[in-house]
Amino acid sequence: FNHFARQTARAAGYWPGPRFRFGGNEATRLVRDWSAQGLTGRYSAVGMAADLEAGLAGVQMPVLAINIADDWYAPQRATDHLLAKMPRAAVTRERITPRDLGVKAVKHFGWQKHPAVVAPMISQWVRSAED
């Protein structure tokens, strides 16, 4: 999929996400960055001089990682991969299931439709991280 998305965005001049049911209409550069990360496992951005991998390795602050149980765009394995790049971070993990929200499916952005469940989770974490 990474190669397909990159080539499609290059040919069209943008990524026509709704047509493929993945993302919105996205900039070619963004899709190139997504693709590169998906293919190599390394974070970088076209035109950015900063070493994002070194930046992640240097994170020494609290991090809240929330996984959505049925999110195939960002599965648990992808979260694990990202968090492994921040070995000095104090990580708190949460998981949201469709049942938590009283729905059949949540998917990638579906949690935004249920702020009464997610917002208190984040708020509580922020308060505890400040202590």
Written overview of the protein:
With 131 residues, the chain is of the alpha+beta class. It contains eight helices and four strands. Strands 1-2 form a two-stranded antiparallel sheet. Helix 1 packs antiparallel against helix 3. The termini are far apart. The mean pLDDT is 91.
Spell out the key features of this protein:
51% helix, globular, 131 residues, 8 helices, alpha+beta
Helix content: 40-55%
Cα(first) to Cα(last) distance is 43 Å
Mean pLDDT: 91
| Coarse morphology | globular
**Helix and strand succession?**
HEHEHHEHEHHH
Tell me the strand percentage band.
5-15%
Report the count of strand segments: 4
Biggest sheet layout: 2 strands, antiparallel
Query: Uncertain spans, ≥5 residues at pLDDT below 50?
Result: none
Secondary structure topology:
Elements: H1 2-12, E1 15-16, H2 17-20, E2 25-26, H3 28-40, H4 52-57, E3 62-68, H5 76-84, E4 90-96, H6 98-101, H7 107-110, H8 115-130
Parallel strand pairs: 3-4
Antiparallel strand pairs: 1-2
Helix pairs in contact: 1-3
Give a concise summary:
The protein has eight helices and four strands. It is of the alpha+beta class and 131 residues long.
